[in-house]
# Entry
Amino acid sequence: MSDHPDAYELLTKIIHLSTTSLPIKDKLDQMLQAINEAFGADQTLLLRREKIVENGFLWRLASENKPFWIKEESSLPQEQVHPREKELVRPPFACLPLFDKDTFQGTLYIGFPKNRTLSPQEMDLLVLVTKEMGEAIQLSHLQQKVGQTSSELTALHEMGKVATSTLKLEELLESIVKTGLKILQAKGGVLRVEDKTTKELKVQWSLGDYSQHLLDEKIAKRVLMTQTPFLLNHSGMDNPIHSILCVPLRSKERILGTLAFYDKETDPSKFDERDFQLLLTMANQMSFAIENALTHYKTSQLAWENEKRVRELTILWELSKALLTTVNFEHIIQMTLTAITIGAGLGFNRAMLFMVNEKSRSLEGTMAVGPDNAEEAGRIWTTLSKEKGILSDLIGHLDLSKDKNSALNTIVKGIHIPLELEDCILSKTVLEGRPFNIRFPRSEGAWIQPACERGCHLGSEVGCHVGEHLSRDPRVYSFATVPLWGKGKVIGVILVDNLYNQNPITDEDIKILTMFSTQAGLAIENAILYRNLEEVHQRLKETQTFLVHQEKMAALGELSSTVAHEIRNPLVSIGGFARRLYRSVPDEAPEKRYTQTIMIEVSRLERILSDLLDYTQKESLTFGEVDLQEILEESFSMVSKDLNGGEVKLTKEYPEGIPKVKGDHRQLIQVFSNLFNNAYEAMKGKGTLSLRVRPVAKNGSTFVRIEVEDTGSGIDPENLHNIFNPFYSTKESGLGLGLPFVYKIIVSHQGFIEVDNRPGEGVTFIITLPAAREEEKK
Amino acid sequence: MKKILIVDDEESIRFLYTEELEEDGFSVEVAKNGEEALEKVSIFKPDLITLDIKMPGMDGIETLKRIRELDRKLPIIMCSAYGEYKQDLTTWASDAYIVKCADLTELKTTIRRLLGLL
# Structure
């Protein structure tokens, strides 16, 4: 081998090496080797820029930008040689700069054996070689760039795929982390998302156990706060994590969360600028995708909510239809309560209705729908979920009798709450006319305030019945009340709860419930009006019939009376004078018989007249149901009007529940005015008049007994047996002739009259009249 | 001799009653309506009055009331052509109530009783 290279051979080798597909390092090594061999040098090195000692001799040479050949030590300014490069700076050696285009890459250093010289041609050759080496380096750089670009494109492509792959948030997050892992060649990744409400940064997805390390959380928090990415290589020997790259996930102006990757699988584990850029790009891309997924999620939520509302409104519509089919109060209530509790509807566990009783100013439990216990509740739900019937059918064809016997219904029906119980939530609902939604926090078994002394959770400060029964199950639960409106005032309350499934009651639920109760309120008001209308109508009909009859009878009576009067008077004259003639005519005269005939015929006519009048007059007697209290009051007021002054004390004993009496209103007034007047006269304007009324039973029938007592002088015992005799009367006895008349009326009423006479003390008249019987009402 | 005042709007009735009662030994005076009756009461001062119920103008009941205002004790017999049941509220202020009949026996007996002549 000659010491002087074969230029051609060397160049060919270099070029050949340049075009191989060896990695640049190997290429350069081999080129150096070839140069070394070709030139017979001691060592051939490629000194990278960073390896050249700064401000040293070699460095100076490199900065001159031209090739150098240092032949001897003498031509070496020793002071410029840095101690560290002393080994190298040992002439003879050559230094040539290496350029990748215009960038200085390093110095080609060739150390020659002593006494070697370098010819100008050799130097030219070396220049060519360095040029080639520079080209090779440039090529490799380009290749590297291409490779990078290509892989970046691939990465972007991957990201694109991920971004558009799915709208499902979970899947998306998983893809992001997995793809990131692939692109960055990391060992693990963690994606955290900020919870908008709690402001917490929560792990949504992670690969590897990096999320377990506290460091990860700290880093993520910092990135979130500062809104800048974080890169850390060489986190420390004692730290299990070697390299960390964390970027914020941005969307519009908001930070959604953080994306971090750990331990790049390179040696050393380092994330570089390129990885950084890549991850930023990915984060940007992904944030759009995440935003989309979140929007999609929200949209589905809204859609679900909407569906729920549509379902509820459908139920409302069905209920409205069903309510139109009936005016029966019970049906209406049952339909409403069922619609509220039915599974497909609002689905409350239990519903109860309380109606306001205006007269007693209280709330009365009317009806309740709901299972008696959890097992029954479960049974009902499974049954309902199987049923696919249209809701209106379900409501319309209720098994009404079944619910009547439920335990809950029975209990609620017995509940009675005075409205003045202001702290009771039901009363409050009525008095304030607005709904209440009472939520109790969950707790283990403990009883929650507010509670009344009986442990009622309905917040009553005074013990009430409601709580006792409803709080059989000591679990706390939430419930709601809505008022029932009818004609501008609150007519009732509906109470609903979710005792068995403990679902919370939302404000939306209350709104819908109010809609239901409005419907029910209207329907109930209608039903009540209708019932009243029916009653009134019935009474009107009856009254009409009665009046017509009365009119007829009265007319007839009037007619008869008029006719009777017109006929009677002439008859009296005819008969009277006929009688006179009869008396003045001798027996033998034929006129005797004539006048007798006249008398007889007149008599006959009179009888006919009497019978006729009897009949019509009796018919026009209106035997109806009379209220004795009314009669007594009226009679008394009539009598007291006519008698002025006097000191008469009146005592009345008229207990509750006196049955009505069958009789003629006017006649009975005459009876009692008579008796009262007699009493007054007997007392001569001073004394006590006592009235006592009570029911009695006699022979299995009910009667009413009226006692009229005065403190006069009493009846003379000698006259006592004659007081009802119409042919016997003594005005001096102070009785007047009313008594026979009174007697007659009482008898015609199928009653009895008795006298308790205490001479010197007073008299008590006892009248007993039959009570109007139930069947005769109809 | 006892004095009786007959009050009735029917001429024939007044005639018949007058004939009958005068025959029986009473002094009889007549009035054909309520107003006249009141006049005659103060002038004639009867011991008894028979009072028809249905009369034009002031009817029997009203007349009864007015007479009673003047004299609470004067026996008054209400005579009705209507029938037994057409008794009005204030007929308890009278002493008897009879239905007019061609046979005057009842009337006469009642008159005698009220005058204490039985």
